[in-house]
Amino acid sequence: MQAKERVKELNDLFLRKTFTVTFAHVSSYFKDVWDEVGYGERTFNRDIRELKEKLKERYPSLENAHGELIKYSRASQQYRYIRDDISAFPSFSEKELNQIASIIEFNKHLFTEGTGNGIVNKLRAISLENNLAQFHEVLPWSAIQLIKEGERSGSEQLKTLLACIYAKKLIAITHKGLEVEGPASVKRGLPLMIKEYNNGWYTGWYLLFYRVEEMAGVIRPRLEDCWIYALDRIESIQELGSAKLRIPAGFNPADFFKDVLGIFRNTHGAAPVQKVHLRLEISPEAPWLGQYIQKYPIHESQKMEGLSVGLYMEINQELEGFLMRFANEIQVVEPLALRQKMRNRLQKAAENYL
Question: 305 and 234 in one domain?
């Protein structure tokens, strides 16, 4: 292990509340975890001095007020940082992690579909795992596994789009469809909101966009005339300036999605809301399904009575995909057109296995 890596690891040990920093404990930790068999007391003292210098550089006023920021207790024969919220290297302490979690929790209205709660839980899980880590009981696996979401496709467009949304600016986007050799097209209009959605393949960002064919005159956006574009297929954005807007009373872009399962609509607002009647066929393979759907409704319009489930929503590809997934346990009673469509898809699927 290089000296820089060793000093950083020692700093991390100071930040663990359950780790007692003594030469014997640190030497044992380096031997067990890093196979550092030649770590002597002279090197340990040199690492302590290096940490003191780094702390002095990061917290000069604190050092002036309290002296050295690493103290040695003769009674317990251990070293400790004088405060639990300092670190020799840029990092988050347990206190800082919890502060960030609290700020996000207070501003959950800025997140959609529980993502704020998810981030809060992740931060607190990291803090808890750091706090519970025992130097003499290092696990060969991670006690907590968090979802690795990675960077969103199209994230480079996010800053520009958000600025135009807040400023109510007209833009022109160059958008390329899924066809590899298909041409890109230019769409002009008003960006309304960004929606994050997991479509089963990956989690991505989508732009709700009100297309404007005529740039002159007053623009009165209507949800039924909006379109959805994936950010990762937007090649460029050109700002066209502020628009003369007349926002209708009660206009809320989020209402575009209220009658659908997921994010996609079949005909950009023209599909009617229909009553969908489902019947649960509880099977030995999924005896939990009825209780699950009752606790976690398929859609906010859901009304359930026994094994009968009623929904009022648009019928789109997401709903059909959900029904196909649970075709053994959920039967479509009405509308008849959807029932027949499901029958045809199941028959076609069965033919693939003949």
Answer: no
